Automatic annotation (TrEMBL):
UniProt keyword annotation of Protein biosynthesis present: no
Protein name, UniProt field: GDP-mannose pyrophosphatase
Sequence ranges assigned to domain Nudix hydrolase in this UniProt record: 47-180
UniProt key word Hydrolase: yes
Single biological process term from Gene Ontology: ribose phosphate metabolic process
Pfam (any one): NUDIX
Length: 196
């Protein structure tokens, strides 16, 4: 018997309640190994990508290329790494390159996946995948935003983000996860070893 077998819940019945643009709401009737039954509401969503792209500003200060936009959930302006939903049958790395180009007018020669995690495993089944852009340069094309996107591009000093000096960035939990992957990849922090 596996160590965590007693923690699992087993599907009895699944229903789709709402088919939305960026997620589907499902109901799952499940039973635990000790016989409890309960209904859980889940969000089925495509994976998301975020791209950490770096450049320098006109004074030579290392900056992240960020986007500034209104978020309808908390009705506030946030500053974020460019990113978005991975389209069906799209490679996540290709989605990352596309989102960087569309939202910022910058292009990267390549991207490297530096981490992935589930944004909210209590309710969601998708992954937020963080990429580091390489060979970043501005292109002549303007932004190619989705119909309901209004996005400003902002070069933010890297230290302002890494030292938590931007509350319009730090209130976004998925962005904090991306910074974690960035710090881990850069060697600024090390993973704990020997922990399962």
């Amino acid at each position: 018997m596996k160590k965590d077998a007693h923690l699992h819940w087993h599907d009895l019945k699944n229903r789709k309640l709402l088919d939305g643009y960026v997620f589907t709401v499902n109901s799952a009737l499940r039973r635990s190994d000790d016989g409890r039954e309960a209904e859980f509401y889940l969000l089925d969503s495509p994976d998301w990508v975020h791209v950490i792209a770096e450049t320098v500003d006109s004074t030579g200060v290392p900056c992240f290329i960020l986007v500034r936009q209104f978020r309808h959930g908390d009705r506030q302006i946030t500053v974020e790494f460019p990113g978005g939903v991975v389209d069906s049958h799209e490679d996540p790395a290709a989605a990352a390159l596309r989102e960087l180009r569309e939202e910022t007018g910058y292009e990267a020669e390549s991207v490297l996946e530096i981490g992935r995690s589930n944004p909210n495993p209590a309710l969601m089944n998708n992954r937020a995948i963080t990429y580091l852009a390489r060979g970043v340069h501005p292109i002549q094309a303007s932004q190619q935003l989705d119909t309901n996107e209004i996005v400003d591009v902002e070069l933010v000093p890297r230290d302002d983000i890494l030292h938590g000096r931007r509350p319009d960035f730090t209130r976004h939990a998925v962005m904090l996860g991306a910074v974690y992957w960035y710090l881990l990849h850069s060697g600024s922090i090390r993973p704990v070893t020997g922990v399962s």
